[in-house]
Amino acid sequence: MDYFSAIRAFLHAAELGSFSKAAGKIEVKTSTVSRYINELEKDLGIALFNRSTRGLVLTEGGRVFREHAQVAMKSLEEAREITASLNSSPQGLLRVTMPRSFGRRHVIAHLPEFMDRYPRIDVDGVVTDDVLNIIDSGIDLAIRIGVLPDSQLMARQLAVHRRIVCASPGYLARHGTPASPKELVDHETLRFPLTPDDKWLLVNRGSATHGEIPVQLHGRLRVDDTEAMLDLAVAGQGIAMLPTWAIRTVFREGKLVQILPEWEAQPTRSEPAIWAIYPRKKTVSSKVRAFIDFYADIFRREGLVQ
Questions:
Q1: Sheet holding 264-266: strands in order across?
Q2: Cα distances (Å, whole numbers) of residue 292 to 235, 275, 284, 289, 296
Q3: Overall pTM surpassing 0.90 (yes/no)
Q4: What confidence score (pLDDT) does residue 5 get?
């Protein structure tokens, strides 16, 4: 039984004293209203109306049920109106998770501007490199970097995720500068622990054939944090594959220089990106939409889209 529709039909029938008039009010057949009332009476185990030639008269049980049903329906309508208003004016608590390094640099850094623009949105930021189950964790939105697995979640690409090969001037002065991807095998490389097969894939996107060269890595240091790898590269500990969004300042300061500028590095053949991930819903809440649109614009301004 559709309890909401049944209660709605009951309340109109009680008010109008007629199944047919109630049916006209809610635009259904009279037989449908009659069926709703019969199902309610069966469920409650009590008659709701006394039927006579003059029309319908509520029983004692019907009067009690009507009193409480009216309160429940009013609360439901208020809940509907309040919830709908959330979608017309961004407001409420927004829980967002993001990876540590990118989150601090490109999300947290712009939160003051976001909070000023949307004073009715409260934000809980969960800054972690752990991939949380956003449904189980009560997360409204996740910023993710990489190649997305198949899932039932919705995703919007916010920016590209380009990586380049780089090293400090000091390291290159001591060990020389590789002139081709194949020469990387003779150098110390800084690696993430989870890099598949200890290889980088160097892709020449500027060539007509988009050449690809896999490079076997060698090096004594592994680290699972982008900021730590950046610090080690600046300290001259080896050649690193780092995202462009992490190295702008040290490049301007001359602490790192790009190697093999015509080549782009990636761990696998799949091209990663920066994504906004959120649960699949018929209507995306305005607070989620506001956050995604705001940061998509920020990333365009920062040049992360290209």
A1: 212-216, 199-203, 264-266
A2: 36, 10, 11, 5, 6
A3: no
A4: 87
Lookup result for tokens 């790009």: 258
pLDDT band at 110 (very low <50, low <70, confident <90, very high): very high
Residues 6+ apart with CB under 8 A from 64: none
Domain of residue 237, CATH code: 3.40.190.290
How far is residue 227's CA from residue 239's CA, in Å, rounded to a whole number?
15
Q: Domains in the chain: how many in total?
A: 3
pLDDT per residue as tens digits for the range 168-223: 999 999 999 999 888 998 899 998 876 556 788 888 866 555 578 888 888 889 99
Residue 183 is classified by DSSP as: G
* Mean pLDDT, residues 51-79: 85
* 287 in the same domain as 148: yes
Q: Does residue 168 sit in the same domain as residue 259? A: yes
CA 233 to chain centroid? 32
Identify the bridge partners of residue 57 per DSSP, sorted by sequence position.
50
Average pLDDT value over all residues in the chain: 87
Assigned domain for 306 exists: no
Instruction: Name the residue range of residue 23's domain.
Output: 3-88
CATH number at residue 111: 3.40.190.10
Do 41 and 97 lie in one domain? The reply is no
| Residue found by looking up tokens 């920066």 in the block | 274
Given 69, 88, 107, which residue is the final one in a domain?
Answer: 88
Q: What is the per-residue pLDDT across 226-281, written as a single tens digit (0 to 9) for each?
A: 999 999 999 999 999 999 899 988 999 999 999 998 888 877 767 788 999 998 87
Q: Using CA atoms, how far apart are residues 143 and 125, in angstroms rounded to an integer?
A: 11
